């Protein structure tokens, strides 16, 4: 039987000049789960995502993704293993169209021959249309990405990850700067895409967290402060003291 746990983090620690940004952390994310990580500034949330995607190397501990130990892999092998990461600022190609951005992100576009020899096959075209629909950009396929609204750019970047079909998708403050209706659409999008993948989201907007989280992990000073359903976490006195009460 397949394990319900997709990502198992154990005793994870990273020190920067003796300062532990993540300190002995244990975290387990299930398949098809939307996990939101919250906590005050400097709690170690971004560093945690950096560790999972290989941008930062762990000082100690383990990050198991299915049967693969990620701490031993370099960033692009972690992507190939099925982990996608979206940073806070969109990294789309502004002068290319939405369609071209999605085509370039299709996994074969980055094979041994590089994108130069990449052929846009019917299969790729079909997948681009499917993803564009998922991210509400079907009618913007030929628009230059630079002309999209801030929210649409964020969606495009999510689409550029989705087209690679990652089993784990990590998003750092995906709704920052979005309008209310864009936030609602993004919540619906995350609910839909987590039907067949897990999603880890760092977020400060508590209304949005309530909308999307299956479970919430609260970090404080690099350590796990609390974990559970949103309503449990919201009533936790330690969480109110260090974060929600502020
Ligand atoms: N490469 C680095 N070198 C030194 N210190 C670092 C490095 N990366 C992060 N830190 C420190 O680690 C701590 C945790 O930072 P991190 O960005 O992970 O916090 P965060 O929870 O994401 O905060 P925020 O909500 O402000 O984004 C901070 O004190 C930060 O200054």
Automatic annotation (TrEMBL):
GO molecular function (one): ATP binding
The keyword ATP-binding appears for this protein: yes
Top-rank taxon: Bacteria
SUPFAM superfamilies referenced in this protein's UniProt entry, alphabetically: P-loop containing nucleoside triphosphate hydrolases
InterPro entries, sorted: AAA+_ATPase, ABC_AA/LPS_Transport, ABC_transporter-like_ATP-bd, ABC_transptr_urea_ATP-bd_UrtD, BCA_ABC_TP_C, P-loop_NTPase
NCBIfam families xrefs: urea_trans_UrtD (TIGR03411)
Protein name: Urea ABC transporter ATP-binding protein UrtD
Organism name: Halopseudomonas sabulinigri
